[in-house]
Amino acid sequence: MIxxxxxxxxxxxVACTDRGLQYxxxxxETISCREGRPRWLPLHFERLRSGLARLRLPFxxxxxxxxxxxxxxxxxxxxxxxxxxxxxAATRRGYAPAGDEQPTRIVSRHEWPxxxxxxxxxxxxxxxxxxxxxxxxxxxxxxxxxEQVLAQQACAETGLQEVLMLSATGQLISGSMSNVFFADDxxxxxxxxxxxxVAGVMRRxxxxxxxxxxxxxxxxxxxxxxxxxxxxxxxxxxxxxxxxVGWLDGRAMPSDDYAQRLRRQIDAARS
Amino acid sequence: MIxxxxxxxxxxxVACTDRGLQYxxxxxETISCREGRPRWLPLHFERLRSGLARLRLPFxxxxxxxxxxxxxxxxxxxxxxxxxxxxxAATRRGYAPAGDEQPTRIVSRHEWPxxxxxxxxxxxxxxxxxxxxxxxxxxxxxxxxxEQVLAQQACAETGLQEVLMLSATGQLISGSMSNVFFADDxxxxxxxxxxxxVAGVMRRxxxxxxxxxxxxxxxxxxxxxxxxxxxxxxxxxxxxxxxxVGWLDGRAMPSDDYAQRLRRQIDAARS
Lengths: 271, 271
Hints:
Two copies of one chain form a homodimer.
Chain A: E1 3-6, E2 13-15, H1 19-23, E3 26-34, E4 37-38, H2 41-55, H3 62-73, E5 78-86, E6 104-111, E7 123-126, H4 146-155, E8 162-166, E9 172-175, E10 179-184, E11 187-191, H5 201-212, E12 217-220, H6 226-229, E13 232-237, E14 241-244, E15 247-248, E16 251-252, H7 257-270
Parallel strand pairs in A: 7-8, 7-15, 11-12
Antiparallel strand pairs in A: 1-6, 3-4, 3-5, 5-6, 8-9, 10-11, 10-13, 13-14, 15-16
Helix pairs in contact in A: 5-7
C-alpha cells in the first residue's frame, strides 16, 4: 500500500464532498525523488503557486507541504511523490466556490516504476484524442484530465510508449504525459502552451539547461508536419527525464544528439 | 450534514486514490426529487449509460444505484439527489486505466435550494470563460468541470443568476449550469452540442415537450448575435426547470410566451 498524508495525517480517505472529486477543482504535481530528496522542488512549487493564483484557490500551507514531501522522500533511493491540492470540501452546492472552503492537500509516495524505457526503443505515435483549447487553463497541471485518460486508454492498446496530442485547432501540443521537443536544421523547437497543454517541470529544466549549454530552443506554435520533418525528437517529464524517441509515427529517428547533450548538461548541474 | 451512500454504505469518505479525484475520471447526475420520488430517472440513467460507454467505464450496478436514489428521495417533499460514478480507486499509477478498477458510486441527498429564482427577475450575462472544444467529451456530464467553476466564480461577483458560455471557436453553447433556448420569428432554437457542452436532462424534457406541443425547435449552431436578436430566452436544468430570462446581456426580454407554454406542457405530462 502506498504511503499517504492527507492534510498531514496518515489516512487514505478524503471527504466525498471534496471539490477535487466533485469538479476536478484543484492541481497536482508529480515529483521525482532520488537519494532521499525531492528534485526540482522550487520549480514544482512555483508552478503550483501560479496555478493556485490562476484558480484563485487560497492555499497557503507550503511549509507543511514541503515538510510532508521531504518526509515521504526520506531514505528512499528512488520514488515518486505526488501532491494534490484541492479547494477542499464543498461548503455549499454548485460550481461556484463559497470562498470559505479549507483546501485539502494530499501527499502520496509511489514506487519508482520498474520499467526503464530508456533502455528499449521508445515508440511514439499520434493520438486521435485532441486537447480542448482554453487559454484560462493552459499550462496548469489541474485535475481535469479526461483527455489524457482517453488518450492513454487508446495508447495502451497500441504498444506505443507515448502518444502526441494535437489541439482542437490542429496544433501539435504535447505528449499525453509529457512535453515534446523536436530538432531541425535550426536547432530545437517545442510547442508554446498558450492555448492548452501542461507546462511541465522537466520542460522548464530542459529550457534552462539548453540556455546554459548555448542551445537555441524556439518556443512557438508547432504544425503536424514536424512529425515528418524532424530529425530528432524527445519527450520530457520528471519520471523519464529527457527521453529520446526511437520511432515516431511510422519512421525511425536518425538522431538523438540533442537529447544526449541535454542529459549530460542536466546531470552535470546536479553534481 | 448531507446524507451520503458510497457503494451503498453510509459514509462520507472515499479513497484518495479514486480516479474521480485524481483525474476527474467519472460522471455525475443531479436528480430533482419531488414528493418522495426522483423525476426523469430513466433519462438520467440513459445519459449515464451513454457516458459510461463513451468513457469505457464498466459500471453495471444500476439496480443498486436506483435503490439508493429511491431510498434517499423517500419521504422528502423536495430534494436533490446527486450521483457520482467514477472509475474507482486506481490500481496503478498513471492516466491509463489498468482495466481492473472497481467503479465507485456516490449518492448524496441535498436540500432543495431555498432561493426560488422564478419569483425574481432572472438576470443572465455572458461569461468570459470559454468552453474547450472536444467532440469526444461533448454532451457528457463528466467530472472535469473547471471551466464551469471559473465561470461561476466570476459570475458570483456580478449579481447575475447565470452566465452563458461560448466555445473556444465562438459559438454560443450553454449556461454555466444550464442549457439555453431562444425564440425568434421562426420558433425556438437551442445550440447543438457536438463540440462541447452538457446534454442536460431538462433540455431533453423540453425538446420532447415541445415536440408534443407542436413547437418547432431547431437544434443548430448558434451565433453570439442571438443575444441581441432573440425576443425570448429561457434556461433549463432540473432544479430550475424552464426558467425565463428577464434580463439578457444588457436588455430586458420582451416575452416569456414559449417558457409558459412549455411549463404547462411539462406539468400536464406529470399529472
